[in-house]
Write a structure and sequence with these properties.
Arc Repressor Mutant, subunit A, seven-stranded mixed β-sheet, about 20% strand
Length: about 240
């Protein structure tokens, strides 16, 4: 059991588990069972006693016994749940305050991890989602979102290079309903959503640019459609 989740540190967790396993036991036995150094064991036992997880029996030498684990652990779990519920409500209040302010027209994120987070948390388009792809990465989150868009009759189209590196990935995208055509690409990925938001990833620079501007979004959507009309059908 990961007692660290209930606020115990590693030594406290190991010591408490040892006292439960041993029953009424002395400090040197607990130290040996738990692997906690003997020089630290009294501090840890005192901490557990203060937290109400064990109790000291006044014998010579001192012995320790665990309080009923079901009672004390459930109490701790319920306390944690209560605190998490409070955090959840606070997060909702913070979100309301955050949404009062418009999203920046242009901002930049760096790194693939931030790019993945950005894509996975964006509001889904309602009309169309046009993409310029580089390697057609079959990321499970992106594919699940695309499959959902296709089921909602959102116009999903992609253009990108057809080569040995992308061939197998393209098959996976076509299978879930993404309409794909060939288009040369040496290192740029782009997503154009409802003509309102454009996300441009510069692959080799590991930088992603987000533009929330309808005039720019409409222009990029028109350029994508022009490229779509002249691009070759995908043959896989």
């Amino acid at each position: 059991m990961k007692l660290e989740l209930l606020g115990l540190n590693e030594y406290e967790s190991k010591t408490y588990q040892a006292v439960v396993d041993l029953g009424e036991s002395k400090s040197h036995q607990i130290s040996a069972k738990s692997g906690v150094p003997y020089g630290r064991i009294y501090d840890v036992l005192n901490s557990l006693e203060q937290k109400g997880l064990i109790k000291l029996i006044l014998k010579k030498p001192k012995t320790y016994v665990a309080i009923d684990p079901e009672l004390v652990l459930i109490k701790q779990i319920e306390k944690q749940i209560s605190e998490l519920e409070k955090m959840k409500e606070e997060a909702k209040k913070m979100k309301t305050k955050y949404e009062r302010f418009p999203e920046e027209a242009v901002f930049v994120v760096k790194g693939k991890e931030n790019f993945n987070k950005l894509i996975s948390t964006r509001k889904e388009p309602e009309k169309f989602d046009y993409a310029i792809k580089y390697v057609f990465d079959p990321h499970p989150v992106w594919m699940r979102k695309t499959k959902n868009l296709v089921s909602k009759k959102v116009d999903v189209k992609s253009i990108g290079p057809a080569n040995e590196q992308t061939k197998e990935n393209i098959k996976k995208w076509i299978k879930i309903g993404d309409k794909i055509k060939q288009f040369p690409n040496e290192g740029v990925a782009m997503s154009i959503m409802d003509g309102k938001t454009v996300i441009i990833a510069l692959i080799k620079s590991d930088v992603t640019l987000v533009i929330n501007d309808e005039a720019f979004g409409k222009m990029m959507a028109d350029l994508f459609q022009a490229a779509w009309k002249t691009s070759k059908e995908m043959k896989i």
